[in-house]
Every structure is written in structure tokens, then in C-alpha cells.
TrEMBL record:
Keywords from the named record: GTPase activation
Species assigned in the record: Oikopleura dioica (Tunicate)
Domain Rho-GAP: 178-384
Protein name, per record: Rho-GAP domain-containing protein
Pfam families attached to this UniProt entry: RhoGAP (PF00620)
GO cellular component terms given for this protein: cytoplasm
Length: 538
């Protein structure tokens, strides 16, 4: 990228960040949901952006909210939204940590961890709609800033990821690749590129190969394989996925080391590394945290802040790496060894300018990034969940926003745009009393109720009032079996709107009464998915 383009991109990023900060600053509903540390982080971002623009003097006008104070925008912020800033970030809080149970496993370095779910079930990043994830990501950025400030590090400079929408299979970015696969396969719900998905399905072969990802493969063989795949993507055959599988199954390419090398090649060829170059300081800071819970909290926030496609791909390959590391006795590849081999691929890109760091500094940086990847592999399930505290903030935000009859949510991420949310979609069709869970008969015993379910499939939408007996033991899975029978296995239970901006996929293990009680104004949807949805959503 030449200097002119780089300067323009830098100015565009800065202007968009300033617009996002100004809009968040003026969103009273958003400010009311923030914790003390989150408010302080937002204040620091406003101050940094204000100072940067004062030095550049390239922006003709600053947001009015920032200029109402004569000298310092943080004074205005503190006056309109009082917060005690003294020792704020030094206060140790555990608001954004999961309730994790660690198991004692002898002398193992990493103990097995289980995220204990609340009664309404754990929330994965993929369970929430785009608007809801926008709020989660903004809250996550402020939490990351709080952690970095406590370590006396600078907050993250968030920049748009590099992209390339033109070129062959090994030149385009991950968003372009997944859209290409969706078009070729006619699968709009696919989240992981086909080639990466097929290579990850070879987990058993890769796990039984000594030195996978570390030992070299034939360069000529890899060049031939890449050439065939590029030609296939350009030819656009009728049975595209079948053709890709046939190429990978050819005798010349059956060696697991070639498949491992191909996966590494695909990941390293993205214009922007999977973990986003501008997030690198956040991942490096993991090594400066003293305890595992703090490290998991930071990695969790960083994962939630990544673009959606990156999250799905990263989740898929981390699961593969975990499978390989569990067979360490055979392949000699522990999670630490995989971290050393793959950290440059996931955190750095080939187009980076020559580093001004010394060899010692580069070594320390790679050591920190390798540790971050090692922990991500060992606890890949933990970092994909959204903390309950942030989900509660989201619900509070939507409730407050609805009272003000205000539309739109702003996001600090430069690849996200403002989007409007609308009122409950079923409100025009049925009355509020019949839409909610309503008692059949008055009296102290309220366990027998009816609920109006919206049943969606590929062909039609139905509205069905279902009498149901709720008790403390009934789960979402029990209700789905009662209503859908054998179709329940390939269906989702959706909690839509109410105190959410869009919707949430409720886990089948969640307690039914808890789900209804937490969001009484929601539409509850049973959505039958295509047969290939479950495997595709991995």
C-alpha cells in the first residue's frame, strides 16, 4: 500500500472513530448501561481522539458535545455523567468473567474448564443477531481498554481490516471467500469457507501425523494443488463441493502434511490476519496478566470483538488444534508447539512493513502471541461465550431505548455501520396479552400456562397457541419435543426482540420458565432449519 493510500485510510479510520465516539457519547441509554470502568474507558477514548484531532487540525468541526466544555471534553463528560474516576481502573472487578469450574487433573499445565450456565443458558457469539452483537462488541472494546489501562498500556487503535475482493482463491479476503462459497453452494447459512471446513474434517489424519504444521511438505506438490483449486474456483462446476473433495482425495495430495500445509497457506494468504493486525497489542498483553481467569477474560473480549467471519473460522480451527494437541503423544504437537508454529500466521501478515523492533523485542512479542494462542486452543470453548453481565447490559439498554422511543445503535468498530431496530414484528397481528406467556386460570398455582409460538420453516410461518405445564425441571428441549416431535432435532428456539435488539438462539438445555421470565415481551419462535445447517454451523 503506497503512502497516499495509507494516509487516506488512516484519516478515514480516524474520522469514523470520531463519529462513533460522538454518537455513543450522546446516547443516554448506552451511557446508563455502562459500568464505572467502561465509562472511564470511553472517556479515555474521547480524550485521545480529541487530542489527536487538535494536533492534526484537519477536521473543520468537532462534535458539539465535545466542545461545550471550554477546555477538556472529559470535564463535560464527567459533569453530565458523574463518575468517580479516582482509582477507577485499579478496582478489581469480575463483572465480565464467566462462572468457570476447573477440574484438578494432576500435573497437567492446563486444567479442564467448564463454563457453568445460568438458568437461561449460556450465550455464544453465534446465538445473537447482528445488532445485539454490535452492542456486545462495543462493550467488549471498553472492557479491553480497562484491562490495558490497568496494565499501563495504551487502548487499542481499532482500524479497518485490509481486504481484497478481486483475485484468485489465495488472494481474496475471508469475507469475499465465504460469499463466493455461499453463491457456489447455494448455502446462505454457511459460516466457514468450504476448503477450510473440509481440511478441518481431516482432524483424525492430521492428529496422527508427527510434526504436523512443523515439518515441510513438497513445494512443487503444493503449487500443483493450489493451481488446481484456483482453476476449479474459476470454472464454477455444477457440483462444486464434490469437485473440491475429489481434488483433496487424489493420490498425490492424500498426505496429511500436504493438507496441513494447505490450511496454513490459506490462513497466511488472507490480506488481513485472522486475529486482526491492530488487535495484536491486546493479544500480547495476555502474557502480562498474572492469573488464568484474567487471561481468559481478555481473550474472551478480544474474540468477541473480531468480525463475524473471523470468529467462525477461528472457532473452527481452534477446535482442530485442540484435537491435534490431545494426541500429543503421537504427533509431538502440544498446544504450545502449535502456538509457536501458527502464531505468526494468525496474528501477522506478509504485507507488514519491516519492523523497527530489535530481534530481542520481536522474540518477546512472538513469545506473548504464542502464549495467547496456546490458551485459546486449550480453552477454545470458553472464549466463544458472551458473559452474562454483558447480556444483562444489552437487555437493560434495549429496555431503556424503547422507553425513549429511540432507534439505532452505534458501534465503535469501523467495519460496523449504524443500523435501526424496529418494534416487535408480531405486535400488529396479535394483542400484547395473547403474545406473552399468559395464565390460563387465576390463582396461586401459575404453573399451567399457554404460550403463543411462531413456527417458521422454509415454506411458511404459523402461529400456534400451545398449552404447556411449566415447572422448574422443564427445559427448552422438552418443550420442543412436545411441539415438534421428531423435527425438534433440526430446529432452533429463538427469543426475538422484547428486551433484545434482534434475537437470540436459546440453548436447548436452558430452563423454560427462566427464559420466559427474563424476556416477557419477546416473540418466541420455533425455527426449522435446513438439514445441512447443524454441520455447516460448526
Amino acid at each position: 500500500m503506497d503512502n497516499g493510500k495509507s494516509a487516506n485510510l488512516e484519516k478515514e479510520n480516524s474520522d469514523e472513530e470520531q463519529d462513533s465516539l460522538a454518537n455513543l457519547h450522546e446516547d443516554k441509554s448506552f451511557l446508563r448501561t455502562l459500568t464505572r470502568n467502561q465509562r472511564y474507558s470511553l472517556t479515555r477514548r474521547i480524550q485521545a481522539e480529541y487530542d489527536r484531532n487538535q494536533k492534526r487540525n484537519k477536521r473543520s468541526t468537532l462534535p458539539s458535545a465535545w466542545t461545550e466544555s471550554q477546555d477538556d471534553p472529559t470535564e463535560y463528560f464527567s459533569r453530565t455523567h458523574p463518575v468517580k474516576q479516582q482509582d477507577m481502573v485499579l478496582e478489581e472487578t469480575h463483572d465480565c468473567r464467566h462462572n468457570i469450574r476447573f477440574e484438578n487433573e494432576g500435573e497437567r499445565k492446563w486444567r479442564k474448564a467448564t463454563v457453568l450456565p445460568p438458568r437461561t443458558g449460556n450465550v455464544r457469539f453465534s446465538d445473537l443477531g447482528e445488532l445485539d452483537m454490535g452492542f456486545v462488541q462495543t462493550a467488549a472494546i471498553l472492557n479491553i481498554d480497562s484491562i490495558l489501562i490497568s496494565l499501563k498500556e495504551r487502548p487499542l487503535k481499532i482500524r479497518k481490516p485490509a481486504f481484497c475482493s478481486e483475485g484468485n482463491l489465495f488472494e481474496i479476503d475471508q469475507n469475499t471467500l465465504i460469499n463466493l462459497d455461499r453463491h457456489k453452494l447455494g448455502a446462505p447459512l454457511r459460516h466457514v469457507p468450504l476448503l477450510i471446513d473440509l481440511l478441518c474434517q481431516c482432524a483424525d489424519e492430521l492428529a496422527n501425523t508427527p510434526g504436523i504444521f512443523r515439518t515441510c511438505h513438497s513445494k512443487n506438490t503444493m503449487t500443483d494443488l493450489k493451481s488446481k483449486l484456483v482453476s476449479l474456483y474459476q470454472d464454477n462446476p455444477a457440483y462444486f463441493d464434490h469437485e473440491v473433495r475429489e481434488i483433496l482425495d487424489e493420490e498425490a495430495y492424500r498426505n496429511p502434511r500436504i493438507k496441513g500445509g494447505l490450511l496454513k497457506e490459506i490462513l497466511s494468504c488472507f490480506p488481513e490476519p485472522l486475529c486482526i493486525r491492530s488487535f495484536s497489542p491486546g493479544f500480547e498483553a495476555v502474557g502480562k496478566l498474572k492469573d488464568l481467569n484474567s487471561q481468559l477474560e481478555l481473550l474472551n473480549m478480544l474474540f468477541l470483538t473480531l468480525p463475524s467471519v473471523n470468529q467462525h473460522i477461528l472457532r473452527r480451527i481452534l477446535k482442530l488444534f485442540k484435537t491435534i494437541s490431545e494426541n500429543e503423544e503421537m504427533n509431538k504437537m502440544s498446544s504450545k508447539n502449535i502456538g509457536v508454529c501458527l502464531a505468526p500466521t494468525l496474528f501477522m501478515d506478509k504485507s507488514s512493513k519491516p519492523s523497527k523492533l530489535s530481534s530481542t523485542q520481536i522474540g518477546l512479542k512472538m513469545q506473548s502471541l504464542s502464549l495467547a494462542l496456546e490458551i485459546m486452543i486449550e480453552y477454545h470453548q470458553v472464549i466463544t461465550f458472551v458473559p452474562k453481565s454483558i447480556v444483562n447490559q444489552l437487555r437493560q439498554y434495549k429496555t431503556d431505548k424503547s422507553k425513549l422511543q429511540s432507534k439505532g445503535i452505534w458501534n465503535l468498530l469501523p467495519w460496523k455501520k449504524q443500523k435501526d431496530f424496529h418494534g416487535d414484528s408480531i405486535q400488529k397481528l396479535i394483542t400484547e396479552s395473547s403474545k406473552l406467556v399468559v395464565p390460563v386460570a387465576a390463582g396461586e398455582n401459575m404453573s399451567h400456562r399457554t404460550v403463543l409460538l411462531i413456527i417458521e420453516d422454509e415454506k411458511r410461518i404459523q402461529y400456534k397457541t400451545v398449552p404447556y405445564s411449566f415447572d422448574e425441571k422443564n427445559s427448552v428441549k422438552d418443550m420442543m419435543k412436545t411441539v415438534l416431535g421428531r423435527h425438534s432435532k433440526n430446529s432452533l428456539f429463538i427469543e426475538r426482540e422484547g428486551n433484545l435488539l434482534e434475537e437470540r438462539n436459546v440453548p436447548k438445555s436452558a430452563n423454560l420458565m427462566a427464559v420466559f421470565s427474563e424476556n416477557r415481551g419477546a416473540d418466541f419462535v420455533l425455527r426449522t432449519m435446513p438439514l445441512n445447517f447443524v454441520s455447516d454451523a460448526l
